[in-house]
């Protein structure tokens, strides 16, 4: 089976970003300091201790956020219903739509559409229209990206447009079926948790099972307790709290499992985050998930499933007035364009030092890359060659290995206003530290686990990463 990330990159590499309509949205301010609890572990679980800052997350650092804004966000999250039975049916609908896209592609003479097609449609549609469901597009959804994908792989525009309308009608039918379904009957069921081989945690509801490694289970449990306590010194969870955590975790894992293209969730390694923290006080991500986030505060795609684990919602609804933030968005040109527009507006109005460190593929021909490079806020850009760096796997919570060598050159942009330039100057020494931190850990990890090296690219990365210099432009 083809690697999902390879399919995503092949699909996105030739895409161009078109301007999107920006609807006005309520934004979340960031200015007042906040506190985070460090609760004790629950006696029901073993080995759930605070992670070190060099492991899968850093629990010791947290971006200060406005308490009133967080309270309002929590009230909004409570209005969004999410249950295991709902999430199971939602995934079934998504998989049925993916099968529909494959059948339509065959009708158009496209042998095998990339895994990313559905996710690209879903992500880009959210930019221009208000979706009623976090995963299932409605009849009025923006299918322009879906149309572009079908045409790119050989379909005529007229034929592809007919098929796009057919797909959106099917999506609307599934959405109505989902909305009309009675989910009350399944409320008495409980999520069952078992620790299996290699300490992999299996969470089962009915006949559906999702998995998380022991490290990710511990991380997510601590993040859940932090949000539950809302700044109060930690205490063990009650049995009711534990049941609610297990249900919330099942929904979270199934939601991200429904997004089959794991490459949308690829992340920097911890050394890169540590360099950004030490040199730029950067301790919050604009595009993350509870599964791959480095810190306990982050922006993410889904408020309903992610809020319980520390998310503050979509980056496009987030309005910081100061601070330094890392942005590693989905590799979709329209998303990158929307991100850049939002950052530009924030930098134009910020009353404190504000900076964004942006990591995207170095696809110079795309509108998104060109806009980031040409901005007056771009203080520096570093280009890191493909063979000299790597990323965390998109679905690291269920994989034996966490690292992969990058499939593309990477661009890192440093956007800053004047106050940020003075507070966090970008120097050659800092950039060299970051480039060293980007080095792929895949070869070392596979050797440590006794796994076979995955081909020439994995071996050559170790040989060349020490002696080839990155390009500063």
From TrEMBL:
<feature type="compositionally biased region" description="Polar residues">
    <location>
        <begin position="461"/>
        <end position="473"/>
    </location>
</feature>
<feature type="region of interest" description="Disordered">
    <location>
        <begin position="17"/>
        <end position="53"/>
    </location>
</feature>
<feature type="region of interest" description="Disordered">
    <location>
        <begin position="446"/>
        <end position="473"/>
    </location>
</feature>
<dbReference type="InterPro" id="IPR039881">
    <property type="entry name" value="PCIF1-like"/>
</dbReference>
<dbReference type="Pfam" id="PF12237">
    <property type="entry name" value="PCIF1_WW"/>
</dbReference>
<protein>
    <recommendedName>
        <fullName>PCIF1 WW domain-containing protein</fullName>
    </recommendedName>
</protein>
<dbReference type="InterPro" id="IPR022035">
    <property type="entry name" value="PCIF1_WW"/>
</dbReference>
<dbReference type="GO" id="GO:0099122">
    <property type="term" value="F:RNA polymerase II C-terminal domain binding"/>
</dbReference>
<feature type="domain" description="PCIF1 WW">
    <location>
        <begin position="219"/>
        <end position="394"/>
    </location>
</feature>
<dbReference type="GO" id="GO:0016422">
    <property type="term" value="F:mRNA (2'-O-methyladenosine-N6-)-methyltransferase activity"/>
</dbReference>
């Amino acid at each position: 089976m083809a690697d999902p990330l390879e399919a995503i990159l092949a699909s996105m590499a030739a895409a161009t970003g078109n301007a999107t309509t920006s609807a006005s949205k309520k934004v979340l301010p960031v200015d007042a300091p906040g506190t985070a609890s460090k609760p004790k572990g629950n006696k029901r679980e073993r080995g759930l201790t605070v992670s070190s800052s060099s492991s899968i997350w850093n629990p010791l650092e947290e971006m200060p956020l406005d308490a009133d804004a967080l309270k309002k966000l929590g009230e909004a999250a409570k209005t969004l219903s999410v249950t295991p039975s709902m999430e199971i049916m939602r995934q079934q609908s998504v998989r049925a739509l993916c099968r529909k896209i494959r059948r339509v592609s065959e009708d158009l003479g496209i042998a095998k559409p990339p895994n990313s097609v559905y996710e690209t449609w879903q992500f880009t549609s959210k930019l221009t229209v208000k979706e009623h469901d976090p995963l299932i597009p409605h009849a009025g959804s923006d299918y322009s990206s879906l149309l572009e994908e079908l045409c790119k792989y050989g379909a005529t525009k007229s034929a592809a447009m007919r098929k796009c309308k057919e797909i959106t009608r099917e999506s609307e039918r599934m959405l109505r079926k989902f909305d009309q379904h009675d989910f009350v009957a399944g409320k008495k069921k409980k999520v069952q948790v078992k620790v299996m081989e290699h300490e992999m945690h299996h969470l089962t509801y009915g006949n559906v099972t999702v998995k998380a490694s022991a490290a990710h289970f511990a991380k997510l449990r601590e993040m859940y307790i932090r949000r539950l306590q809302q700044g109060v010194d930690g205490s063990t969870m009650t049995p009711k709290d534990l049941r609610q955590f297990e249900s919330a975790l099942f929904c979270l894992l199934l939601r991200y499992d429904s997004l089959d293209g794991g490459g949308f969730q690829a992340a920097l390694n911890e050394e890169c985050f540590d360099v950004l923290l030490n040199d730029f006080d950067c301790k919050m991500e604009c595009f993350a998930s509870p599964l791959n986030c480095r810190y306990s505060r982050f922006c993410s795609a889904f408020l309903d499933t992610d809020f319980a684990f520390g998310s503050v919602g979509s980056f496009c609804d987030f309005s910081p007035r100061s601070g330094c933030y890392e942005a590693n968005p989905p590799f979709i040109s329209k998303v990158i364009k929307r991100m850049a527009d939002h950052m530009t507006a924030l930098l134009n109005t910020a009353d404190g030092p504000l900076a964004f460190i942006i990591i995207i593929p170095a696809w110079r021909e795309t509108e998104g890359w060109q806009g980031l490079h040409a901005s007056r806020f771009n203080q520096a850009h570093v280009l890191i060659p493909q063979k000299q760096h790597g990323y965390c796997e998109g679905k690291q919570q269920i994989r034996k290995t966490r690292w992969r060598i990058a499939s593309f050159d990477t661009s890192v942009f440093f956007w800053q206003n004047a106050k940020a330039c003075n507070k966090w100057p970008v120097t050659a020494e800092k950039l060299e530290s970051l480039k060293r931190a980007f080095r792929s850990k895949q070869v070392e990890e596979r050797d440590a686990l006794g796994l076979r090296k995955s081909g020439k690219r994995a071996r050559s990365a170790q040989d060349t990463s020490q002696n080839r210099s990155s390009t500063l432009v």
